[in-house]
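Milestone 3.1: sequence recovery, worked example.
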């Protein structure tokens, strides 16, 4: 699993611990977090690759 930022950890803890306890909501929150983190890392790699590519 990708590394989580401090803000993402806070958001997850708040959604899981303080939101109404629903199993489906918790799994959806975790899945969404993993998806967002992966997309962010993919975009970051892509931008880095584009910057380092000299025409």
């Amino acid at each position: 699993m990708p590394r989580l930022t401090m803000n993402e950890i806070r958001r997850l803890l708040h959604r899981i611990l303080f939101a109404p306890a629903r199993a489906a909501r918790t799994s959806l929150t975790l899945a969404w977090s993993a998806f967002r983190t992966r997309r962010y890392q993919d975009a970051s790699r892509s931008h880095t690759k584009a910057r380092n590519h000299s025409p």
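Helices lie at 6-18, 23-52. The mean pLDDT is 79.
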